[in-house]
Amino acid sequence: MLVEFSIVPLGAGSSVSDRVARVLDIVDKSGLPYRITPMGTVVEGEWEETMGLIKKCRDELIAGEARLLITIRIDDKKGISGMLENKIASVEKRLQRPLQK
What CATH number belongs to 2-76? Predict the structure, then answer.
């Protein structure tokens, strides 16, 4: 399954890169395949792994923040792995060219 999530501390001001770095350190150390985007992070794994990872990220930030806005989108497809790469490859195949990554 693919899980896209973002965690935004409300009231933190205009720059949150220090908090994003702390969260991405947790994601990177999880060992799960992931991709970052300017607006969120996409992780591939099983339910328990991905939800556990999001909880760790939430716990890291909530300790120093009064309020977090957490957005989660899930693509849950049985018996499929490699979705992180395969979804993009499928579109590139149809276009017959690579896309900007």
Answer: 3.30.70.930
* Average per-residue pLDDT for the chain: 92
Q: What is the pLDDT of residues 21-37, one digit of tens each?
A: 999 999 999 999 999 99
Distance CA 89, CA 97 (A): 10
**Three-class SS of residue 63?**
coil
Task: For strands 34-37 and 68-75, give the pairing.
Answer: unpaired
Q: What is the dihedral sign for C-alpha 1, 20, 70, 55?
A: positive
C-alpha distances out from residue 54 to 21, 40, 61, 88, 95, Å: 14, 12, 11, 23, 34
Residue extents of the structural domains in the chain: 2-76
Q: What is the pTM of this model?
A: 0.87
